[in-house]
Design a protein that fits this description.
Chains: A mainly alpha (424), B alpha/beta (932), C alpha+beta (263)
Distance between the termini of chain B: 61 Å
Shape of chain A: globular
Strand content of chain A: under 5%
Oligomer: heterotrimer
Shape of chain B: globular
Number of domains of chain B: 5
Largest sheet of chain B: 7 strands, mixed
Helix content of chain A: 55-70%
CATH class of the largest domain in chain B: Alpha Beta
Order of helices and strands of chain A: HHHHHHHHHHHHHH
CATH architecture of the largest domain in chain B: 3-Layer(aba) Sandwich
Number of helices of chain A: 14
Bound molecules: ligand MGD, iron/sulfur cluster, molybdenum atom
Strand order of the largest sheet of chain B: 5-4-23-22-21-6-7
Radius of gyration of chain B: 28 Å
Helix content of chain B: 25-40%
Distance between the termini of chain A: 12 Å
Amino acid sequence: MITSTKTPSVPPEHRKISPWTWIGVGLWVVVLVLGLQGFYERMLHGSLITDLGGWMPWGLWVAAYMWFIGLSAGAFLLSTLVYVFGMKSLERVAPLSLLVALVTLLMAMLMILFDVGHMGRIFEIWYRGNPHSMMAWMGWLYTVYFLLLVVETYFALHNALIAARGHVGLSGRVARLLTGQRRTLLSESEQHRERHITTVLGAIGIPLAFAFHGGVGALLATVAARDVWHTGLYPILFIVGAFFSGGALFTALIAFFWPVRDKEWMLTVRTLGRILLGLLLFSALLDWADYQVPLWYGVGPEVRELSQVLTGPFWWVFWLVTVGGVYLIPAVLLIAKPKSPWAIGMAGVLSSVLFLAVRVNLVVPGLATPELPNLPSSYHDGRLLFHYVPTWAEWELVLFVVAVGVVLYWVGIKLLPVWGRDVK
Amino acid sequence: MKEITRRKFLVASTATVGALSFWELGHYALAASKSNVTDGSPQSAVLGKERVIYTADAFCASECGLQVTTYNGVISTIYGNPHVPYNAGTTCAKGVSGKQVVYSPYRLKYPMIRVGARGEGKFRRASWEEVSRYIATKLEAIKQQYGPETVIMDGGDMTDQPPYWRLFYYFGSPNCTQHGAICDTPRRLGPYIIEGGLRIEPDLMRPVLVRQPDGSLKNDYSYANKMIIYVGWNPFTATRINYESRGTVAAKQNGAKVVVVDPAFSNTAAQADWWLPIRPGTDADLFATMLRYILTNNNPQDPERQYLDPRFQDYSVGWPEFETAFRSWWTKSDPINNLPYFSLQWAQERTGLAAQDIATLAHEFGSKKPAALVWGMNGTGHHFNGEVVSTLGTVLNVITGNFDARGGAIDTALVRSNKGGNGGSKQIKSQMITRTVNGKTIKGLAWDLEMDNNGAWPAAFWGALGAYPKQMSEGVQINYGPFAGYHYPIKAFFVRGGNPANSASTEQRWAEVLSAKDGSGDYQIPLTVYVDNAYLETGLYADVILPEASFMERMGLSDIYPSEPVMYLREPVVPPQFEAKNQVEIMNILAKALHDAGDPDIQGADFWDRYHSEEDFWNEALLEAPGRTNVGEPLPYPRYPVGYKLLGTPESLEKGQVSIDHTKKIVQGVPLTVAWLRDHHGVAVWPMAWERYKAPSGGIIATKSGKFEFHFGFLDAVNKYIANRPVPYMLNQVGWTRYPTTFFWYETVWNPYTNPAYTQYRTQYPFQLISGRIHQSMSATQYVDWLGRISEEHLWMPLNDAKTFHPVVTTGQGGEKIAGIHHLRQGAWSIAVIQMNPVDGQRLGLRTGDLVRLVNPLKQETKGKVFLSELIRPGVLRVPPGSGGRLTPGMGQTYEYRSITPSSNRLLDPNLSSPITGMSTFNDMVVKVIKI
Amino acid sequence: MGTFSGNPVPKPDGGLVPIPILPPPTIPSEEDIRLVMQSDLQRALKKPMGERQWGMSIDLQRCTGCQACTLACINENKLPPGVVYRPVLENDSGTFPNVTKQFLPRPCMQCANPPCVPVCPVGATYKRPDGIVEIDYDVCIGCRYCITACPYSARTFDWGEFYGDLVDGPPTPYEQVPSLEYGHVWLRKAGTSPINNTRKCQFCIERVQRGELPACVRTCFALATYFGDLNDPEALVNRVRQGRQVMQLKADMGTNPSVYYLL
Ligand SMILES: Nc1nc2c(c(=O)[nH]1)N[C@H]1C(S)=C(S)[C@@H](COP(=O)(O)OP(=O)(O)OC[C@H]3O[C@@H](n4cnc5c(=O)[nH]c(N)nc54)[C@H](O)[C@@H]3O)O[C@H]1N2
Ligand SMILES: Nc1nc2c(c(=O)[nH]1)N[C@H]1C(S)=C(S)[C@@H](COP(=O)(O)OP(=O)(O)OC[C@H]3O[C@@H](n4cnc5c(=O)[nH]c(N)nc54)[C@H](O)[C@@H]3O)O[C@H]1N2
Ligand code: SF4
Ligand code: SF4
Ligand code: SF4
Ligand code: SF4
Ligand code: SF4
Ligand SMILES: [Mo]
């Protein structure tokens, strides 16, 4: 039996502050400052700061929310590879994936909160939620998912937390707080039992994640009024997309922020790289199907919207950002340099960050075509237009959420023994 | 509302529970319990602060009856007054937008005096005392030095100008005018010379109040019309005769055939049975050909071809002369196509319509009775030969028996209620004056110095505003009457409710004359005064700007174009804002200032001691209402003698509370007053009748003979008047030495398809440029936000560029930029565009939204974006009047787009006006299109 | 001067607004159609709420495209920039000279099976027993999901703009007049409903429940819009459909609109 002793929580080599860290911190400060500006604008002027309008009521923020929640679902599903399916090679990073899922969930919630007109009323969803509404279900499922994540993370980290009781500083205090009176590390059987709990929770989580993220797809797909959205493919597309983008984010985090560049790191990243390539290809296949099927014969209600995506003024979002940035370059990196953690990490960064473009291209085109012919020339207003370009303030608010997410993540890894290192 | 109490709701909901799912019901129950409106609820508190006022619109000359609601003294809603049969509770888009005029930030707020140069737009705020003293001092000096006739009072396009006219007539100037002079004088001439009226409209106003066989009065909602032909008249958009909107579609559903003759597929055409895309400026050709067809093919024996209703001869004089003169043209051939005049083939060549279509139109018009042939302002009246159109049109309506027939064509000017009052014309027409002409002292009436009638066009009896720039720079030459040979300059221009610098004729000419200086560096016209609600172009050239109370803030009367006498009150709805004042107040203030400045002609007894309030003034006008004779079928008042003039409230006439004067043939009831109107939903309605010209004692026809005159008695008089005098110069242009006294014909000038001298332009300047109305009042209201948010007729479309600008509001300094900035997104506001057929667009490589220059043979030009539209005849370009190239910041967002919007009035021929009436020829111009 | 006061509006607690009294019609069947509709609706109001279904018939052969209804609605409901309940769509087709132009006013269809309702996460929008699809501005969180779900673009969002903004000034005087949508008092102020709520045509239900016709119906220049209780066969709104070709917008979607177009 190992008892916890007061040891430094972080290995010494991690203490050295590299120039990359400074760059990172600097970047974060910039993002935060811009983000705060966006936050301020949003609180002061509400939805007025957006470029949205009555005909195109959803834009960057909804897409960003879907992006974040997708990352969350993806990260979570990765963790289930370990907890539910017992995949050993990722064992070490499973708690981290739970943390990432938790943080991105909170980011998603924050993002969508900013998007609604009456933020103060968001709680209405709980006490008068409408079971017909996909969106109400989202609210409920996120709540359950949130609770599940908290509990599962707790159990996943339980032993490490006990181990961390002795840490000096805040992390130790947090560990002591979270582990109560428990001083001794978990026994084999206890570990086993708790592992079982995480397995059960993970197992519950899988359909949950499918439900809420497939649900986001369904949130759009069930809207019969919007031809582009109204396809059975959407929920699946969203789940796969979540897997892919969440996995990519996670891969990037492991590739670049793993505390030590050891063998295990190398192996983990390579494993993740292979998984990522698989997800990328699958996601690309579905995206291709989503565009190609309705466009094949060149007739039908979606043709206009989709052609607009491909050849309209924002063609580059599709061709350069999505096809190039999300799929092609990462695929090349993953295939050409399957062994390079840097290449794999970069692929992860590109795919996860630029995946926002995929979400934008799912949300916006569905709205960009008038539901009735000649609606655009009937009554004019700056908010009754069919072109939408996110305002600077909209971008800034996304940055705000990112900045908050980074803080949450940083606090998480600082205060919680997510790297699981001390257990060894 | 009380009814949705919770208990009742539960009863209701149990009854329908099966139909509703639990959740919807549950939600509804939740909300319903909350949304109960009970006594003392906030909602009834709001309604308790509402007030309803019956008033009349003045957004356009239609002047519909309105029911306005205020809340806490602020205008809340605007609806039509259902008691006014003219508009029967409806309004158009402009009417609804009235509050955006009243509360517009672009409104003039204070009296102002110019501090910069004219046209520069620099002013300072002044008090009413100061401005009235300023005006009075200048006017008195002008009167002393040049005579009162050198002052022009332009009463604009608002019909309630009598207070201003009164002031200036008493001051001694005969030169009071209004904007009928640039509106539709040519289209009025035909009716005027043939039956003494002005405007022929279809019998479409419903309801009308009709005497029943049992003696009761009932509202008649039935439509008898079988055919309506609108020529260059677009009532669905150009909402001048309100009832034509509901009436036309109702009559159509009742079986009437509706035809629209217009180069553009107008909104009216959209609901018509047949559209004839005529070449601009050839309506006279169409009418003449219809007349020839009808005269040729009329066959009293064939029921299909009984085109003529021979009874018209019983009520007319001079038809044989007219017919002879008309037929004499049939053998002549037209130099431009060598075809005999008025033949179907000839008309096909000139109008661009198929000969067969013209024959069908003539046949159907002649055989489908009752019918109405109606022509509009722009389409016909804004062409050089509009008088020919209106004359032939009137003839066609009369000889087919449609005039004043039930379901036929009614001259509204002959049947509407009178609101004569004393606008001061009696004064000026009886005032003796002396002037020295060529060294001789001549005595005459002040009226004989009137600049339009005695100058270039003796038939410019409605004024010739479009030609004022010429007279402003050259002075007025009196050619006729006792003062013939007298010459006087124009020294003051007083304009109220009109924006001639933009609307009246060539824009540049107006700018030029209003800012012209004499040798000593002083302005040639030492005083210009602009009385308005908005800060428009004419205001930029003013020395003094006076803010007038808006139409919701002042009193007036409406009597406009109903088919029966109707009179309604414009009641002030809200107090004048800022320092605006109503016309009667302004009249009194200026009168007092003139009096104080020593003017002997202005006395308190005629002004401030006589009219203590607006109501006093309008009560005087109401004394003459309805002023129509008791004639027609069914007779309005069987209890009174036929042909007697009726005066007084409908109530008193109905009840017999009258005195009858048999010598003057007057039935005098209780005089109508503002107070009476106020007690009766703001409106008085007297009974309708038809065939009102048939009374032996003299019906409604207002010609000298009391009959239809085809040998124009009026022109006879004019001819006598100008005998031994040089012929008005424009008459020379059409080759006349004297007025024709019966059928006459002349061609349009700027038309390469009908004017042999101009055929060269067909290739060099391949487009004819016309205008068409949009949801605005000409040059006035393009700043009205709501109206900028809707598009119309492919003339006013959301082709604006994105633009960030400092908004301008009017202050005590004129238009002033304010600190903030406003961003207008692309496509968020309508601007004036150039409507063009895609065939033309393709040929020139143009796409919708491309910026082009329009250049005319006089080298004038304007810029605008094209809008390609299948709804216009190739070779024709159409723009909205007064909506583009606007030069004053008072136009709000429209001003911001001045460099990419077209102004057709910049391309007019400054030396051209109609030879008979002096009217501007807004629609006669050819242009070429150059892509920018 | 007795002016500026006008007459008080009949209060709702005084019962229904009186129908204007005009001279009797010569032919009883040919009456002022607005008075007929007003008495139709007053008759309907006597029935329990669940037994009446408000609906509209819009005669496309009569509509002149004047757009007075669009603006009358804005005027009545005090709609801010960005919000429109009844745009009039213009459809042109053909090539010169064989062209047509049709105007199509588009209020909320008050669908019998409204896709906008089930999507609302908080049940802020619901079908009332009288057929109106209501939005409870006090509950609506402003998520705009329903906007995406309406196949007719009948819903727009109140972003909080004012006409005064156009000249960078304070709200105009007429923006300080409350609207009475759904029988509540709504005075727009930053951050409070209906700002940041989804808004749409509600058949002027507050007016209707007072016995008045909806603003657009009342104003219509060409008398092209009929309104009344779809459950009452005698109501003009139903009688005008007889013998006419009738269309519902996007009928294939199964929303079953309460707005009928007469072709
Ligand atoms: N909404 C609105 N209503 C208005 C006004 C307004 O500004 N806006 N102004 C009011 C006033 S003052 C007036 S005078 C009336 C004007 O009423 P209208 O005369 O009906 O109005 P316009 O649109 O000027 O002209 C009518 C039509 O004439 C056509 N046209 C042009 N040239 C020719 C031609 O040579 N032949 C034929 N057959 N047609 C031609 C144009 O295409 C146009 O569609 O409207 C009144 N009502
Ligand atoms: N190219 C072209 N030119 C045209 C026409 C055309 O069709 N084509 N149409 C012609 C016709 S038909 C006409 S009638 C004329 C119209 O031309 P105008 O008579 O000049 O009429 P508007 O341009 O409407 O200008 C009316 C003025 O009255 C002001 N006003 C509005 N309400 C009030 C009020 O209550 N009190 C006062 N004091 N002022 C008020 C407005 O602000 C505006 O300055 O334009 C003519 N010009
Ligand atoms: S037709 Fe003219 S007077 Fe009548 S509501 Fe429209 S703008 Fe006002
Ligand atoms: S038209 Fe749209 S907003 Fe209206 S009920 Fe139907 S789905 Fe809902
Ligand atoms: S915007 Fe309001 S009414 Fe619409 S779905 Fe969201 S909460 Fe419901
Ligand atoms: S019924 Fe009322 S709310 Fe609906 S469009 Fe008409 S005016 Fe607007
Ligand atoms: S008010 Fe009537 S005629 Fe005008 S657009 Fe609306 S429905 Fe059509
Ligand atoms: Mo006019």
